[in-house]
Amino acid sequence: MNTSFFQELLNTVAEQGRALLPKSLFGDEPERGMQALVDALVSGRGEASGVAIAQQILNHYKILGTDEKRAFFRYLASAPVLKPDSDAVLDAAESYVSDPSDAALARLQSAVDSPRQEFFRRLNLAPGATAEIVAMRRDLLRFPKDDPAFATVDNDLRHLLYSWFNRGFLVLRRIDWQTPAAILEKIIAYEAVHEIKGWEDLRRRLDPADRRCFAFFHPSLVDEPLIFVEVALGDEIAGAIAPVLNEERKSAALREPTTAVFYSISNCQGGLQGISFGNFLIKQVAEELVRELPSLKTFVTLSPVPLFARWLDRVRGDDTEGLIGEEDRKILADLRDPEWTERHGDDEDLKGTVLALAAHYFMRAKSERNKPVDPVARFHLGNGARLERINWLGDTSDKGLRQAHGLMVNYRYEIKEIEKNHEAYANNGTIAASRAVKALLPSQKGKGGEAGSVLTLPRPVIKSGSDNQSADSVTGNELKKVGTADEG
């Protein structure tokens, strides 16, 4: 109610403010007037006129074509009125060097403060502007990231969004079958990991006594979830997603569930890419669940491996590490069979080879920034989770087979180990992993096991889909549109 009243007040201010401004700022050709509006918003001082100009900018932006939006962002990057005064910056810097006092530092900070950030702050005065600015950044991210103009605007915009969407402003809400339909429709639309196939499928995930769903909301986006997580409660480890998604609804809850499985985490707002809420979400949901169900002891994910198949194809084509021998190539050829899961799914050689390569992928393969190549791994390991187990044929859907040859992974959040794991990963790049995962790693033969030495893939005999994993973990699956939770 308060938010609605405030928005109505801003609408009134915007309408009254229009009467105070030149009519030339409110023409019908937005591509010609946007620069004038930007300049007017930055240079103006009146609150009412600022709200009116901000509203007009947002109205015009909505009807811009792709080329006009590109020109708009380039103007934001290049306009002199949106850049710090270089003479003032130099003068303040020289003053600080000669006299590094608090007053001189404050003057320098004021001189380098970006007028472009002030533009977005004033733009945010318009009714409903926060959602519009998030959508604006979503458009910006579609343009080439290596273009200096777009990067300049995004740096300022992302800096502001980090502040506006600070964890202290977010509200955790449980999503259930009684949640308003408008929000439930968005849960269906935003699900990024395992497609929700209509209302009955959604009810299967929300209504049963052993299912939970939680989402973060922001006061300025009342009915727009920022990120949500789906949870299955139980007392055993799940190594495959199909039983979790297709299980019949239970009318009675487990008396004392021991395991919470985070089987899908989806970021909802493309304009908030790189501003991660997932770490806060998992920890707060775990706290909420323990308050409700003290019997819960184990918290894990059942996560996708979105880039494994692509990585394996690249290694098979250019194996600079000597990772794959001729025998392995013959075994891996079975993956090209469209029906390989039926014909070769029980082949122990194929299973052992793929699991060993997957262990190398998670533990040793690095990006150019010396981080794990898998974005989901970066997200969970960075949050202090442990790589618990790699599940053979955990996801046999078309998407799961295409992206990961059916593999899924469990990341375990051990409350007592989270901080230690996070610090070791952040400071030294150390990947916390169970003994079962480490045992899958290919052995290295050569001088000190250095990079470039010959690698030998183990041939473990695995009797079932989970026998190669430690028995004291849990299950769950995860999340996000690739790349949204971690920029590393």
Commentary on this structure:
With 488 residues, the chain is of the alpha+beta class. The chain has 2 domains: 163 residues, Malonyl-CoA decarboxylase, oligemerization domain (Butyryl-CoA Dehydrogenase, subunit A, domain 3), CATH 1.20.140; 319 residues, Malonyl-CoA decarboxylase, catalytic domain (Aminopeptidase, 3-Layer(aba) Sandwich). It has 21 helices and 9 strands. The protein has a 5-stranded mixed sheet with strand order 1-2-3-4-5, with helices on both faces. A two-stranded antiparallel sheet has the order 6-7. Strand 4, helix 13 and strand 5 form a beta-alpha-beta unit. The two termini are 40 Å apart. The C terminus is likely disordered.
Q: What would the CATH topology of the largest domain be?
A: Aminopeptidase
| DSSP helical segment count | 21
Number of domains: 2
CATH superfamily of the largest domain: Malonyl-CoA decarboxylase, catalytic domain
Secondary-structure arrangement, i.e. CATH architecture of the largest domain: 3-Layer(aba) Sandwich
Helix-and-strand structural type: alpha+beta
Percent of residues in helical segments?
40-55%
Assembly type: single chain
Write the layout of secondary structure elements.
Elements: H1 2-18, H2 30-43, H3 47-62, H4 66-78, H5 86-98, H6 102-112, H7 115-123, H8 129-140, H9 148-164, E1 171-174, H10 181-190, H11 199-206, E2 211-217, E3 227-234, H12 242-246, E4 259-267, H13 278-292, E5 298-301, H14 308-317, H15 326-332, H16 340-344, H17 348-363, H18 375-382, E6 386-391, H19 398-404, E7 408-412, H20 418-428, H21 435-440, E8 443-445, E9 454-456
Parallel strand pairs: 4-5
Antiparallel strand pairs: 1-2, 2-3, 3-4, 6-7, 8-9
Helix pairs in contact: 1-3, 2-3, 2-4, 4-9, 5-6, 7-9
